[in-house]
Amino acid sequence: PGSSYSSMAQAPVAAGARLADIASGRLLSAGGKRSATGRFKPGRKIAVNPQDFSWEDLCGTLVIEDFSELTARLSELPPSALRPRTATEDFFVLKAAGYEKPAFDPLRQELSFSIHDSSGNSALLCLDYEDAAAPGFERFFRIMGAMPVALFFAGTLSLQGGSLVLKPASVVIEKNGRRELLLPWIDVEERDAGIAGKLMPNISDGMDGKTNAHDIPKKAQPSFERRWLDECRLALGELLLRGIARNPEELRATWLQLSDSAARGGFSRLSILAQGIADYAGRRLASASPESGSAWKIVRRILALCRLAADIPEPVLPTIKA
Question: Going along the chain, which residue ranges are E strands?
């Protein structure tokens, strides 16, 4: 708690190797185990060597050159709740032909810009701002704002409103024939800005019209369903953490509010489910030990609903032209 991601990345995680070195280097392991879900546990002896970031040589289906192929592949997947749980199943490397100038949205606290492949297909990169990753975020914003040659974008990809959205883990850029890896979550700002120089203003100036990129698709505001589900997940987390029998007055108030908001949005079944938990809390206030089996049935139904709803994509508005 209170530590930055960059300082956490300096901690040894396997055989004395630091997480930051593993994230940017080439890991060699003497043995190891790979689970059925795709998780790899290295052996006791490992070595981390520097790499030249020649990611075009990566094998398999990890590197994506045609974004439309990945869009088609992701659109054919069954809901995540109904398919095998495989680690990094949504992790890919996009080979980019170009990208738009980054823009920072202070309302969403998010940096975003569009990436293009050689055929003109696009993906939207979205990087959320977090205090723990502030140095890396600032460095990433400044360097990408200087518009260096960007070769590869790696991270998790999903379909939102039919459009590819990338949550970046790393980016390979090139300057003067030398490749460099950007790690926006764990990088630290350098004293000598180097490639970035002082071409980019502060993040707080990101939407003043000077650095605003107009030719990128803008994400729509969260729908009512998404906002309600987010509030419901928070309430479920508190309920599972504290238990259904504790603090019934607060429990009743929370779920009455969820029930009322669902009813106002026209979702009567959601309202009835939330009302069921509020009713149990009311009975708890009136009796020392009311029967809780029916309340837990409702909780399980809402948990299943929230899990299935995780696959509902957020809409993306059409590209806005200046």
Answer: 12-14, 17-18, 26-29, 32-34, 40-42, 46-49, 63-64, 91-95, 98-99, 103-105, 110-116, 122-128, 149-160, 163-175, 178-182, 217-219, 316-319
Q: pTM score, two decimals?
A: 0.72
Instruction: Give the mean pLDDT of the chain.
Output: 83
What type of residue is 270?
Answer: L
Bridge partner residues of 319 (DSSP): 217
Q: Is the pLDDT of residue 206 over 60?
A: no
Q: Of 95, 120, 125, 123, nearest to 110 (Cα)? A: 125
- In 3D space, the residue among 213, 211, 212, 218 whose CA is nearest the CA of residue 319 turns out to be 218
Whether the pLDDT of residue 132 is over 60: the answer is: yes
Nearest to residue 183, comparing CAs of 152, 204, 214, 213?
Answer: 152
53 vs 22, 44, 171, 181, CA distance in Å?
13, 26, 10, 8
Can you give the C-alpha Rg of the chain in angstroms? 23
Backbone CA torsion sign across 304, 307, 313, 315: positive
Inform me whether the pLDDT recorded for 92 exceeds 60. Answer: yes
Mean pLDDT computed over 52-57 = 93
Report, as an integer, the average pLDDT of 241-251: 86
